[in-house]
Amino acid sequence: MRAMTEFDPWGDPLCTCPRKFSLSPYVGCSHSCAYCYITSYIPDGFRCREKARFLARLEVDLARLKPGSLISMSNSSDPYQPIEAERGLTRSALERILPLGHRVLLITKSDLVVRDADLIARGNCSVSISISTLDDRIARRLEPLAPRPSARLGALRALSSKGIPCSIRVDPIIPGINDDPGALDGLISTAAEAGCGHVIASTYKAKWDNLARVLRAFPELAKGLRRLYAEEGEAVGGKRYLPRALRFDILRAVKGIAEGRGLTFSTCREGFPELLGAGSCDGSHLIPLRVPARLMNDFIREGR
């Protein structure tokens, strides 16, 4: 069994990501976000557990990898869940990957990522922090066990202050919950002040199990959201999308806010190439080249 797999195994026609590998030290995600899609394909998806023989399998995969490969950590299981503070698999993976000169994109909702700033700041690494709202009341209903938005913004400031390039994922945007233009402007402006360089925005893509959770979390919006997704929305790759015109209007507005703050912008699996204005859709264009493979021994000597 491989530790690393090619990203996007389903071949989503709307995916515009560069070629990269997906690496998750853990299975499942204890943040238990209402909108999360992993429960549709991972049994007991909200129970986090470490992968068996993860580091040994990673070593085998790294021996096969071409120099300078792009690795995304993680796409369906946050690499900095509470278990990471105890087990340290994400840090151990970075200690093995970064000296080899590979590029790493860390995606997280947790301020625990700051613990590894010493490694991240010396490697070919960028951090993407997911923040869908600054409103703690909304965040508690949407993302009940994830760190509060203020903690994530603190992590963004801390990482940026160390010269680590960061992006934010404003994802998912859900009508009536976190799509208010003023609130989005406040979020992106605050992120820009904290050192963010790029914004990735995405509207909520519903599957029936996560839609049921969102409707339970926001019963006052259930009728309208059910209409938008189940009746007026469109089916794309096994998910229900918002009506195309509504998606475009929301994302165009976010693009205007981001670019007005001097940030690059992209969307994720939306089907609007005209809104893809950055060097990459996932923020990987921010990754610096700090460790060519030929400097591997210097990196190891300085860090260990």
Description:
- By secondary structure, the protein is of the alpha/beta class.
- It has a single domain, classed as Aldolase class I (TIM Barrel), CATH 3.20.20.70.
- The strands form three sheets. The chain has an eight-stranded mixed beta sheet with strand order 1-2-5-6-7-8-9-12.
- Helix 1 runs parallel beside helix 3 and helix 7 runs parallel beside helix 10.
- The radius of gyration is 19 Å and the shape is globular.
- It starts with a strand and ends with a helix.
Please describe the topology of this protein.
Elements: E1 4-6, E2 21-23, E3 26-27, E4 49-50, H1 54-64, E5 70-73, H2 82-87, H3 89-97, E6 103-108, H4 117-120, E7 125-130, H5 136-142, H6 149-161, E8 166-173, H7 181-193, E9 198-203, H8 208-217, H9 222-231, E10 234-236, E11 239-241, H10 244-260, E12 264-267, H11 296-303
Parallel strand pairs: 2-5, 5-6, 6-7, 7-8, 8-9, 9-12
Antiparallel strand pairs: 1-2, 3-4, 10-11
Helix pairs in contact: 1-3, 7-10
